[in-house]
Amino acid sequence: MDILDQLRAFVATAKTGSFTAAADQLGVSNRLTSKYVAELESRLGVRLLQRTTRKVGLTPAGEDLLARAPALLDDFDDLLAEVSEGSRAFTGLIRISAPVTFGEVYVGGMLARFSEANPGLSFDLRLHDGYVDLASEGIDLAFRIGQSGMMAIKTRKLGEMRSVAVGSPGYVAKHGAPAVPKDFESCSCIVDTNRRMPRRWTFYNGAEAETVNVMGRFSVNSARAAADLAAAGLGIAYAPRFALHERLASGDLVPILDDFGGEKGQVSAVYLEGRDLPRKVRALIEFAAEDIRATSIL
């Protein structure tokens, strides 16, 4: 029996937690899916799945295989696409991870634009602000803000985002705009708890940095929600420019203290080290690098 069919059956079952759901996904029978997985276990001499009457779970050996099998299957699909006579189109699935706001504001639209020229590809975009383990989640490519401390991660810098202090025109007209960073300490500020130091805002006058401690009635773990609260006239927000893009363009928000530079952070595409990157993922990274420059989202 083809080991690729066995691996595909295993991956689908492990991800869905059900032979029935895996069979539906693969377009084969429940019985055949179960048979493929059993043959793979026999071939490897280990049990990969724990079967109960209610669900299917992974054994430690199954967890190890699931961490690598999706990438191997994708590499095989890419190989077939490369060597198939007369065919250079990308096919298969790309699994992508991104922070929630950046994913909603930019990555989703970028993938839509990339997909127009690549109709053979499908995409699984997962938005999460916490740490995501690329290996265990089977992620092909992740977009990240800031530096990554993981040694097993390779990084491609796509650009640099800058944070901006903003308020609504109505708020500025009523309360005035801070003239120097110290003035923020007496303002009603909207705190984005996703920031590394939510209540400490740093501004730059050339190379000189000034950090201020801010207070306010509203705290929220979303830059986009902070921008919405600021647009409602409830205070001043400090957020990445990409999260403010539409609000600034519409005039719902105006920059405050724009003569001072805000905090900066690297925007990167990251992927696992130790294996050749599939052509379709390399193409997506190159597209994102060009698209970010073209859209001026940062």
Automatic annotation (TrEMBL):
Pfam families in UniProt: HTH_1, LysR_substrate
CDD domains: PBP2_CrgA_like (cd08422)
Keyword DNA-binding part of the UniProt annotation: yes
UniProt record, GO biological process: DNA-templated transcription
HTH lysR-type domain location: 1-59
Record-linked InterPro entries: LysR-type_TF_proteobact-type, LysR_HTH_N, LysR_subst-bd, WH-like_DNA-bd_sf, WH_DNA-bd_sf
Keyword terms: DNA-binding, Transcription, Transcription regulation
Family matches, as PROSITE patterns: HTH_LYSR (PS50931)
GO molecular function annotation: DNA-binding transcription factor activity; sequence-specific DNA binding
Family label: Belongs to the LysR transcriptional regulatory family.
PANTHER family: HTH-TYPE TRANSCRIPTIONAL REGULATOR (PTHR30537), TRANSCRIPTIONAL REGULATORY PROTEIN (PTHR30537:SF35)
Name this polypeptide is given: LysR family transcriptional regulator
Organism per entry: Allosediminivita pacifica
Organismal lineage: Bacteria, Pseudomonadati, Pseudomonadota, Alphaproteobacteria, Rhodobacterales
